[in-house]
Write a structure and sequence with these properties.
Number of strands: 11
Number of domains: 1
Order of helices and strands: HHEEHEHHEHEHEEHEHEHEE
Structural class: alpha/beta
Mean pLDDT: 86
CATH superfamily: Glycoside hydrolase/deacetylase
CATH class: Alpha Beta
CATH architecture: Alpha-Beta Barrel
Helix content: 40-55%
Radius of gyration: 23 Å
CATH topology: TIM Barrel
Length: 265
C-alpha cells in the first residue's frame, strides 16, 4: 500500500491551487465580482458626473503664463459661459490682477496647489500646506475659499485624496483632455473635444496654451448648438449622497450601485 506524504511545502502549494480554482470559478460564475472587488479597493477622484441632461464643464489649469487670460474671458463672455480655473498659488502671486479679472467675470477660481509639485511624493503635512497656502491666496483676492482641487499633472494617491477630503474639498480630474498644451492646431483641439464630450463631462484646457483661444469658439458654438449647457464644475458635481464608479464617474446614490466615494467633511 502506498501512502501520500504531504509536507508543509506541498500543503501550501495544494492550498494555493485550490484557492486559484475557486477564484476562477467565481469569476466564471459572477464575472462582475472581480471588477467590483478591484474597484472597491481603490479610491478615485471625480472625472465626470452622471447627468440626465446635457450639462458639461469647461476647466482651465493656470500654472505658467497669463498672456491669453483676458482673451479667454472675452470669448467665454461672448457665449455667456462660466468656467472653472484651477490656479497655482505661485501663479496667483505673479498675476493677482488676472485672478481678480477671472473672478469679476463670474468664473470660479479653484485650487491647483501652491507650487505645482507631484502631490503623492509629499508628506501629509506638506500636502495640507500646499492646499491651504493656495486657498488663502485665492481667498484673499476673490473673498471665496476654494472647494475643489485638481492635482498637478493629474497625479494622485489615496493619501492625496484623504488629505483633500479632510480639508472639506473635492478632488477633480477630467474625462476629456484637449491636449492643447502639445501645440495642436485649433481644429485638432476642437475635434478632440467635440468627439469625446458627453453628458456630465469635465473638459481640460490650459491657460496660456497656444491655440486654445482659437479653438474655443468652435467648441462652445458646437456644444451649445447640440443642446449643451456649460456650467462651472462646482455646479456639475454632487456634494453628497453619491458614489464613484470604476471610471471615476460620480453618480447620485438614487441610481448608483458602485463603489462609495471617500467621505467629505
Amino acid at each position: 500500500m502506498r501512502y501520500l506524504i504531504l509536507t508543509k511545502k506541498k500543503l501550501l502549494a495544494v492550498g494555493a491551487v485550490c484557492a486559484g480554482l475557486l477564484l476562477l470559478a467565481g469569476v466564471l460564475l459572477y464575472p462582475g465580482a472581480a471588477v467590483q472587488t478591484a474597484a472597491s479597493s481603490k479610491k478615485l477622484p471625480i472625472y465626470c458626473t452622471k447627468q440626465e441632461q446635457k450639462l458639461a464643464s469647461l476647466s482651465f489649469d493656470a500654472a505658467w503664463g497669463n498672456e491669453d487670460t483676458q482673451q479667454l474671458i472675452d470669448i467665454l463672455a461672448k457665449y455667456n459661459v462660466k468656467a472653472t480655473f484651477f490656479v497655482v498659488g505661485e501663479w496667483v502671486d505673479k498675476y493677482p490682477e488676472s485672478v481678480k479679472a477671472l473672478a469679476d467675470a463670474g468664473h470660479e477660481i479653484q485650487n491647483h496647489s501652491d507650487t505645482h509639485p507631484h502631490m503623492p511624493e509629499l508628506s501629509r503635512e506638506q500636502m495640507v500646506s500646499q492646499l491651504n497656502s493656495c486657498n488663502q491666496k485665492i481667498e484673499a483676492i476673490t473673498k471665496v475659499r476654494p472647494t475643489l482641487f485638481r492635482p498637478p499633472y493629474g497625479d494622485y494617491s489615496d493619501a492625496v485624496l484623504d488629505a483633500v477630503a479632510a480639508q472639506g474639498m473635492y478632488t477633480i480630474q477630467w474625462d476629456v483632455d484637449s491636449l492643447d498644451w502639445k501645440g495642436y492646431s485649433a481644429d485638432k483641439i476642437a475635434s478632440r473635444v467635440l468627439t469625446r464630450v458627453q453628458e456630465g463631462s469635465i473638459v481640460l484646457f490650459h491657460n496660456a496654451a497656444e491655440n486654445t483661444p482659437a479653438a474655443l469658439p468652435k467648441i462652445i458654438e458646437s456644444l451649445q448648438s447640440d443642446g449643451y449647457t456649460l456650467i462651472p464644475i462646482s455646479k456639475l458635481i454632487y456634494k453628497d449622497h453619491y458614489t464613484i464608479n470604476h471610471e471615476g464617474r460620480q453618480i447620485p446614490n438614487t441610481t448608483a450601485q458602485e463603489t462609495p466615494a471617500q467621505p467629505h467633511t
